[in-house]
Here is the input.
Amino acid sequence: MTRLCKVFFITVFLFAAAVQGFSQRISLISGNDEVSIDFPLGFNLVDANSDGTAYQLQSLVPQSAVTAVIRIYDSKRYDSAENALKGTLNTLNAKYEAEQFEWRNQTSSIASFTAVMGRDNVAGYALSASLPENNGTVILLTWCDPRFLERSQNYMLSFLDALNIDLGCYYEAGPITAYLYPKSSEYVDVNLKIDGKDIKSRLRANDKEASEYLIEREYDVLTLYASNNLWKDAWQRYYRMIFRDSYIRLWQVSFDIYNEIAPSCTDDTELAQKLLTWTQGFKYEREKNTSDFASLPSMMLGGGSDCDSRSMLLTVLLTAMNQKAAMMVSAHYSHAMALFVSDHPGHSYEFEGEQWLMGETTAQGLTWGKIDATQDTQTKWIFLPLP
Here is the structure.
């Protein structure tokens, strides 16, 4: 085939409807959710080619203009992500430094660059990844005025890190985090005690550091929306990015917990209750970092935690155990809770026709479906659906 087997597109309708900014992942292949970008909010379409393979966007969210370009190349145009990136940057007469790295079991390419666009000097970053089944290459570029690069850097890197090229990406570190923190071949031991059972597991040696990097970067992006009407959507994306990065880091821990605890449980709700009781016994400690969010690897290694990090932990573990889990946060209550779908009675949150039992992680002795009566107004909560 001279073109990709499916037409790449981002519909003008979706972009036109996004004047207030993106709040969800946008698919890059018609009818296919696998290749997508979970945009930082605020990007708007400014230009596109006629065949739906190139788009230019712009955002003023970082208080300076940030431009982004998405380009899809046919597999006959470039035979590798490296050549696609170099070819694109050479076309722009850019000065750049490119490196290759492993992501999703293949070689991707990344570069920082400077160039002249029209009469303006710009500085930014570029990322290239080969699509599965030899379906071409996706190129992401983002740049701004060099004077504002430091302030806009995390926003631009978050855009690049939000690329998904297959369904597995929804549960694994993004390409930027993977580049900065390659999977370590060394491990650290994890020793847990749940429901009276001693459970041994492990994390990669750099999981904690990598997770903390992503959290702080995404929190910096989140702060851009403090006085913006997109703040609720920005919160949802912030936690989605943390979930995505945390899932694979805790997959082995989830597997080992399940193998030890599940055989003695009568149903999924009993298993979820044992995990809830376990998190209720954690040491309550506010993080001494900008985000005030404890990374999940840090928690597994004995670090402190508060409500949103515990709720995220339960969401990750239950999802890895094939249960439908999520979390919710409230600016009004300054609180977070875990959720999972269960037919057991209790206080629940209704979303898209399903009843999600609410789990209070910071008060010991409570079961799923029991919460503080002063915090039960559903309109005061933001539901955070996750993959």
About this structure: The first strand starts at residue 26 and ends at 29.
